[in-house]
Amino acid sequence: MGSSGNEHIVMLPILAHGHLIPFLALAKRIHRRTGFTVTIANTPLNIQYLRSAISADSNSLETSHIFLAELPFCSSDHGLPTNTESTENLSLDQIGILTASFETLRSPFHNLLVDIKEKDGKAPVCIITDVFFGWAVDVAKSVGTINVTFTTGGAYGTLAYMSVWLNLPHRKTDSDEFNLPGFPDRCRFHITQLHRFLRMADGNDSWSRCFRSQISQSLKSYGMLCNTCEEIEPEALEWLRNYTKLPVWTIGPLLPQAYLRKSTSTCSIYKQHSGKIPEISVEKCVEWLDLQDPGSVLYISFGSQNTISPSQMMALAIGLEESKTPFIWVVRPPIGFDLRGEFRSEWLPEGFEERVTESKQGLLVRNWAPQLEILSHKSTGAFLSHCGWNSTMESLGQGVPVIGWPMAGEQTYNSKLLIEEMGVSVELARGVQSDIAGNVVKEVIELVMNKTAGKGLEMKQKAEKIGEQIRAAMADEGEEIGSSVKRLDDFVKSIMLRRPEHSGR
Fold first, then answer.
1. Whole-angstrom Cα distance, residue 82 to residue 338?
2. N or C: which end of the chain has fewer CB within 10 A?
3. How far apart are CA 481 and CA 381, in angstroms?
4. 368 close to 391: Cβ distance less than 8 angstroms
């Protein structure tokens, strides 16, 4: 698709790293396909974070027309610790306060759009905002443009998350199992798949008031962009479209092209994608992985803002060691301790780290690891994950099956999708309340890592097929244009056609 003149799109992701990076990836894709200018607005520290992700990107042409705009925000005004501008390292209650504070971005965001309109001589062709900025629908209207909602999750998880909040179905039954509006009867949901604050929500509490109003307003948007592709969630996309009554354009999964091409040069894919500097060098990680057999390593990470309880950590370590499976484990302090604090050896069985390091069975990485490089290495055989959508797509994009341990947000619904609809996962535990024992950990790991027969082999084959579908959907080279790239072109055509100068009005 060629350039369409000097059009401008403005984006507003919510204050969470798992949302900022997909928005940045979408901005790059839009610019690459259209030549449009894209401005991403956010709070000062998040803009700093995006700036570091952009500066690590070797493709400067792609980022030269992506601008970053700071919106004033003071976390201490809301009773949050100073310089708190993302969900990372926050407790659940603090995340609730942060989410409620999003409303204060409305006025500065409106002012930014007015400034852009004056400077460009016309309103942006559209604004693209997160599901939790329902007020953006009215803001867009007030400056003469439209709002498009971008869900950084998949179709199944997005629909479940929206429907649970809007309907609170568990309140209407005494059973632990219930049906969810929007889903067919065969998809029964369970009370343990709801986070404790959602379980207690009654429609009048502060979480309900905030989430229900933002989600229902966002459903008045012009349409929805979804970070998935038609091939991997065909039924869920049909359900999502029926439920929201919106056009839904599948433009994902938004993973780096070099990663999808399984390019041999792994250098700095990770830094470009996440803007993070891992605690361990990519070289050291790859060196360790090179020593292991193909498909033999279990990678363990719970994402950027989750951790497990001290007893779960102990059980996981015991099961890992007994399984004799090689592993890379991203460790951070357990629940109840400062997530930014030092990791202490007392949280693991005595002498655990020394033993697994010496025997080369395991590599413990503090806080952050080069995830894309690990998942794309031939030695990695499975991913023990919190089932966040970005991590899930990074795993399946490389044909790596998942051991699910969902924590919050829509992760339990993603886990359900991976098990029931895709057949690429088994669930080890759910949240921080689950009791797990070392022998169960060992059994589950052995089941999934056995690629010669049974469940392990089946999961691997299905994951590889999904990996192929993801790579085909995102193809954007020469003659080969994938379904998600075509959907992005359709989206652009649609928003351009409603421009007064294009519609003949």
1. 16
2. C
3. 29
4. no
Adjacent-strand bridge partners of 384: 300, 403
Residue pair 282/363 in contact by the 8 Å Cβ criterion: no
Dist CA 439 CA 443 (whole Å): 6
List b or e across 7-34, with b for residues whose CB sees 16 or more CB atoms inside 10 angstroms: bbbbbbbbbbbbbbbbbbbbbbbbbbbb
Is the CB of residue 429 less than 8 Å from the CB of residue 312?
yes
64: burial class by Cβ within 10 Å (0-12, 13-18, 19+)? Answer: exposed
Instruction: Please give the Cα distance from 312 to 441 (Å, whole number).
Output: 10
In angstroms, rounded to a whole number, what is the distance separating the alpha carbons of residues 12 and 69?
A: 10
Kind and range of the H or E element at 380? strand 380-385
Give the total residue count for the chain.
505
Q: Hunting for tokens 């994608």 — which residue is that? A: 273
Q: What is the pLDDT of residues 370-408, one digit of tens each?
A: 999 999 999 999 999 999 999 999 999 999 999 999 998
The residues, any chain, with a CB within 8 Å of residue 478's CB and separated by 6 or more, are none
Residue 62, both tokens? 């792609």
What are the helix (H) ranges across 194-336? 196-199, 206-218, 234-244, 257-260, 269-274, 282-290, 310-323
Spatial contact of 316 and 436, defined as CB atoms under 8 Å apart: yes
CA–CA distance, 414 with 159 (Å, rounded to integer): 11
Q: Cα(194)–Cα(37) distance, rounded to whole angstroms?
A: 40
Q: What is the pLDDT of residue 74?
A: 87
| Per-residue pLDDT reduced to its tens digit, 413-469 | 999 999 999 999 999 999 888 899 999 999 999 999 998 889 999 999 999 999 999
Closest by CA position to 181, among listed 200, 203, 159, 211: 159
Q: Would you say 10 and 39 are in contact if contact means Cβ atoms under 8 Å apart?
A: yes
Matching residue, tokens 């659940």:
92
Sign of the C-alpha dihedral, residues 7, 12, 18, 21? Answer: positive
Give the residue carrying structure tokens 């009867």: 185
Structure tokens, 13: 């992701």
Q: Is 491 exposed, middle or buried (0-12, 13-18, 19+ CB in 10 A)?
A: buried
Neighbours of 352 (CB within 10 A): 18
Distance CA 278, CA 274 (A): 10
Q: What are phi and psi of 479, to 5 degrees?
A: -75, -25
SS3 string of 50-82?
A: HHHHHHCCCCHHHHCCEEEEECCCCHHHHCCCC
CA distance 337 to 308: 11
